Each structure stands twice: as structure tokens, then as C-alpha cells.
Amino acid sequence: MKITPSARVLRMLGEIEFDEWQCVAELVDNSFDDFSEIVRSGTEWPDGFMVSVSLPSSVSGELVITDTGRGMTYERLERAVRAGWSGNDMHDKLGLFGMGFNVATARLGKRTRVLTTRPGDTEWIGVEIDLDQIGDDFEATDITEPKSHPAQHGTKIIIDRLNRTRADWLRRNGAALRNVLGSVYSWILVERGFELYIGGTKVKPVRHCRWGDDRYVLYNGKERVPAYIEIDQKLQDGVACSDCGQWQLTQGDVCSDCGSAKLTVRQRRIWGWMGIQRYLHKTDYGIDFLRNGRKILRWDKQLFTWNNPDGAEGNEDPEYPVELAHQGGRIVGEIHLDHVPVTYQKDAFEYSYRSWRSAVEMLRGVAPLQPKRAQALGYEENESPLALLYKGFRRNDAGLRCLIPGDGRKPLHEATRRWGQEFQKGNPEFQTDERWWQAVVEHEEIKSRGAEAKTAASVPSQPDARAVMEALKVPVNAPSSGSASLTSIAMTGDGTVTTAKEPKAETRSERLARYEAASTRHSHLTRPYGHPDLGHLNVETRALKSRESLLDDSGKAVPVLLDQRAGNELTAFIDPSHEVFRRFGADYADILLVELAPLLKVRGRSEWSPSQMFAAIRASSLKESALEGTTVGAEARDLLNEIRRRMVDELQRSGEFGRAYGGLGEEERTSVEESMIAAGQVGQIGRLGQDAGFVSYLPALSLVRLVEAMPETFLDGHVFRGPYSGVKSPSARSLSLARVTGYLADVATIGTFASEATALQLQRARLSVTLLTDELAGEK
Could you tell me which of 290, 475, 677, 688 has the fewest CB atoms within 10 Å of its CB? Predict the structure, then answer.
């Protein structure tokens, strides 16, 4: 079989950079192309569409790729393995042998055998390409194999005498290979139902864990911004060459690039979706771009950076994410660009082509995503799909405003990432967005209860009925804890004292059912608890909503009550109104661990002391609560960024930015200019004092001085909810201001010097972050 050009060229192809997974994907592409042809033809295919990749068991083993496709004739096989040949349609195919086949096989091993057969053929026919044996006669050896059944069909590729490094990677990384191919082919595996097996294990599609189609947020309290945007933009049809794939810029009968007469009118279309992931991630966010169902770019972040069409410098910094940047982003999407050419490695599109630039303009617009930046540069408001998502979801505050799960005080980023892992594992409890949604709702409920508690604490309490009756010398029967009371005494509105029969005592199961009905899931503390040496307990934690005490089986009020279910399943009830939390400020998690530790000690038959147990369980199960400078510092800086944003908006609204800038010292102005230069905002330095943008670059500790200098601008519900202008007493005004600036100074200090802080300083800073967050005014 002729396989021109020479074997020397084939060996050189093996030096082209292809990762191991890319080599395997090139060969899988060919099978999926064949399957897609069958689907398009409408032919019944009862044997299904399956590709199986057998990995080498040792460095001297072999790599085998088999499929259940149609098989090939001898003539088609001869063309398929010839270097440089490609299929007769460059636009509907992923690979179809050609150069990709030669590069992949030469890079993996020295000898490749291709065997193929069609239904009804009497044998497998094939070719053996041995790079050590082929000479300048350009001929490879024809081979055949008997068939076990005439109905057999498909193609097999066997590669041996493997490159030792690549064979070792394939042998050790079956799971990693399944994961990356599950991502690359996720759309094909889901939408077309093709099956791919690696090392005998089925590849699961790596799907996006996004919010549901019906979720949305309200921007500025009125504009509805959906968490999922469907995209289907049909462009004007174009003429393309089926041989070389080039789109034709001018009309003619032959291809302007290769001279072929195989020109066809083809559809050009940008379609797919963009949306919001249910959790933030440092790397796994961005847009996937696909061609013919295969992902060419995964988690691509190019659209998040604005490129000035005038070529001006200073636009290299990404516009997203800008808040909680250390936590990552959550804008994701899948965009199909079947009409845009890709590189031969299939790891990028041809970015110089107009078709790519048009897609970028449609998806993200020509203006910056940041509205104020766009306005300053003279652009109209960006109304692209990405700009809409950016407007609604660029912030990451816990609650309904940003669709971020929280625990009543702060976002649950670590927990939601764990839930995302459960989603990818296929855990049925995490497939819909209901777990995330409940955590958003719970956050709002906890915040609401906290606000109600503050209001209740500020007004006189209601008279205690028992105290009133004792003052009136009315005898009161006090039943013992846990027993049934025969009578109850009540005082009516006119002062009449009445008695009534009380119902019999409720059972334990009834009491627990009542607690469950009167509580909400605490998502942050609902998780497995334990240690590798002790085992684990799966705990659903629920917080009581009512002011009723949580009673144990003897009728004593307790802060935490455990209800053991089947196996390792438990429900833990927490009473937020218990004095250990209300008066002494104990952490819910710590008291919960006090209850869980004895159970784990018995289950694990451990000799550890109680303090050892507590420390080990906390370190293993609540890692994110550790007091570390990087974590607390990041929390502080995130809050400072939010305060800066609100201060900018308030100064802009009130027109007080000139006064604020005029009050800065020389050192502060120099620091602002240096920060703007470092951020690439050189062109904006000339506008300093003409708007409030300078606050975004002000040193953290200078924010404290700015609030102290202009309290009437930032308090009274503008940025901070504390009263000021309406307070008559000078000492009360000073106290209200000091409460805000004290917390702000703590947060600013730790945001600047977190790496040098002690554990006590970090603890104080974390409390100040919580308290200062409570001081923020509700957004208008």
C-alpha cells in the first residue's frame, strides 16, 4: 500500500508537539466522524456507537482503539492513512484521519496497524506502518485477519513499540484521560449519545454545573438578569471550499486558495448558551468554544479582557473577575462556532480570521464590560450577552441579590465547591440547583431573624405572665421538666385568671418532628464530620427558627440536640437563642463538635483524649475555618473593595467627590497615582478629582480618614446604616461614627498587613469583618 510521502517524513511528524490525550483524541475523532455520517444519513444502526480505548498495561504493551462504525473499503483505507490527505468535507468533520492520524500514531509508537471491516465482508483488511522498516519505496505491508462473524464491522487501530515516556503516562493516567476527554467530548456524549470507554471504564461527560433556566437576579432592584442566556445568532450564509476549508471572500467558480472546484454554500451560525455556575472556582470558569461538537477551547477567559480597537495600551487586565478575585469566577458557557477554522492541533481557533472576531463582537460587544469605563471612553452601553451577565453577577455577595449561597453572615464558597464535586460524581441530590437555592434562601432567613432580634432588643420586652401572676398572689403550678402538666394558668386581657387542661406530653419522635418543621437547614454545617482514623458521620444540621428552647429527653434546654438515624446518618438541631451562643458568643460548629466527638470516639474505638478528638475532627472537617493570614486577608480585601464601590457611588451621587479629593494629603494622592499606573489606568490620572473613581485606588487606611472627615456623606444609610446627622447629642454622634471607623480600621489593617498578624489579631479581624458587614446599609 502506497503511503507517500517517505517514512522519514512520517517519523518527523512524531516530533510535532501533541500531548498524550491529544494523540488519543485525534484517533477518537475519526470514529466519531464516522458515527456522525451514519446519523446524518438516517441509516438504522442497531449495534450502537461505541469507541473503546485499551491502554497499555506496561511500557512494552500496546494501545488499541476500536469502534463500531461502518468500516472502510481498501481504497478509502489507503487514502485515510496517507500523510496530508483529509476527508472531502472540511466543515462537518472532527478529524477523518489525514495529518492528524499520522502525527498521533507516529508520536505514540513506531508501529501502527489499522484493520477495518464492513458488514458482510469475509475478513478484516488493513495496513501495517512500521517506521523502522518502510523505505523510500513508500510502501507499507497489507495485512488481513479472519472475522469471527460476517456481521462484524468497524475499525481497529493497534499501536505498539510505544514511546516509553508516553506509554508510561497512558498506563498511569487512565482517570485523567477519561476526565479530559469527558470534557472535550461532553456535548457529543450527551447530545448524540455516542459512547467512549477508556481502559474498560465508560467516560462520563463533564457537564457544567450551572443555575437552572428559570433563575435570575434583580439588578438595581428592578431589571431582571437571567442566570442562563440562550444564544442563536444566524449569520449570512457563505461559500466555502470542501477541500481546503477556506471561506471565499470573493465570488468565483474555483477556490481562491487551492483552486478546487468543490465550493458549497454553507450556514454560518453562532449558537449555544452563556450562564452562571453555581459556585466560584479559581480556574474552572470561562467559555467553552466548540467546533462540530468537540471543545476546542475549555474554560477560555479571552472574552473577559477588553481589547481597545484603537490599539491603545493599558487594556491588558481582565474585567472579570474583579470582586473576590482570589475565589475565581462563575461565568461559564458553551458556544458552537462550526464555521470558524481551527489550528491543526485543535487547541485554538484561527484568531486572525474575521469569523472569529465577529463572534467575539457578538458575544461580548465592542465596549468595555464595566459601564463607567465604557462611558468614560465614549462608548454606548454594552448590551451583549456577556455584558448582561457581568452586570447582574459580577458581585459575589451572599443572598438573593447575587444568587450566592450563604450562612447568614458570609458566602459559602468552600461548601458550594464541594457540592459541585458531588454534581460531577453524579450524586442525585446535587444534580438540580435546589441545594444551592435553599442555601440562598436560608441565608436571607438567618439575616432576617438577626434583624428581627436587633429590633426586639431595642424595644421593651413584653411582661412575663408568670411574674405578673406571682405579683398578684395567684398560685402557679410549675410542672417538673419532662412531665405532663395537668393544668395550665392563663391571664386574659381583662385580668381574669383561667385554668385549662393541658394536653398529654408529646413523644420524642413527635418532639423531633416538631423541631424539624420549625427549623431550616444550615447548609454550611451540613456535611460529613470525622477523621480518617475515626470514620465519618453524615450530619444534616438544622437551626431552629422559633424562640422555643431545644429540649433533650429529660426536658433540659440544650444548645445542640442530635437525632441518630440509620447507619452513619444524623440530624443535628441547633438553638441559636441558647445563652451559650447569645450571651457567650460560642461558635455553632464548636458546640456541634462537642456533641459529635463522643460518638466518633466510640465508633472509632479511639484512645484519644477529648481535646485530641475535638482538634482532629475540626482540622479534618472544617478546614476552611482555619485562621490563616491569606484567607482572612482576602476576606478583608473583598469587603474593602465592596466599601470602596459603595463610597464611589455615593460620592458620585452626592457630587461630593471634589471635596473628598481636595481633602487628601500629598502622600495619599501620590499613592493613588502609583496604584492607577500599576493598574494600567495611566490615561485616567488627568481626571483625578473630576469624579469619584480615585477612591478605588485609595490606600485602605485612608478610607477610615475619609469616613471620619465626611460622616454625613457615608453614614445615615448611605454606605453605613449608623445614624449621624439626625442625632442631636454630640457624644452619641461620635459613638455612632466610632463604631464604624473602629471596625473599618481593623479591616483595613488586616487587609494590608495580614501576613504579619498573630492568631488573636486574625480572630479580631474576622470578627470585625462580620461586624462591619452588618453595619453596611441595605442597597437601594
Answer: 475
Give whole-number Cα distances, 536 to 560, 594, 599, 600, 616, in Å: 19, 15, 10, 7, 12
The type of residue at 29 is D
User: Which H/E stretch holds residue 67?
Assistant: strand 63-67
Distance CA 440, CA 601 (A): 34
Element (H, E) at 501: strand 497-501
For residues 764 and 629, what is the distance between their CA atoms, to the nearest angstrom?
12
Q: Which residues contact 579 (CB under 8 A, 6 or more apart)?
A: none
Q: At what angle do helices 759-775 and 730-753 cross, to 10 degrees?
A: 130
For the record, the C-alpha cell of 504 comes out as: 398529654
DSSP codes of every residue in 716-731: TTTSB----TT---HH
Is the dihedral angle over the CA atoms 707, 711, 716, 722 positive or is it negative?
Answer: positive
Which triple of cell numbers denotes residue 773?
A: 458587614
Between 711 and 680, where is the model more confident?
Answer: 711
Cβ neighbour number for residue 269 with a 10 Å cutoff = 16
Q: Does residue 573 contact residue 542 with C-beta atoms inside 8 Å?
A: yes
- Cell output for 164: 516509553
Label each residue of 117-167 as H, E or C.
ECCCCCEEEEEEEECCCCCCCCECEEEEEECCCCCCCEEEEEEEEECHHHH
Q: 321-372: per-residue pLDDT in tens?
A: 876 666 789 999 999 999 998 888 899 999 988 899 999 999 999 999 988 7
CA pair distance 28, 425, nearest whole angstrom: 24
What is the spatial distance between Cα 541 and Cα 549, in angstroms, rounded to a whole number? 17
> Distance between CA atoms of 288 and 226, rounded to whole angstroms?
19
CB 144 within 8 A of CB 126: yes
Exposure of 297 in the CB half-sphere (CA atoms within 13 A): 26
- 427-463, pLDDT tens digit by residue? 999 999 999 999 999 888 887 776 555 555 444 444 4
Nearest to 290 by CA among 194, 191, 217, 209: 191
pTM of the model: 0.71
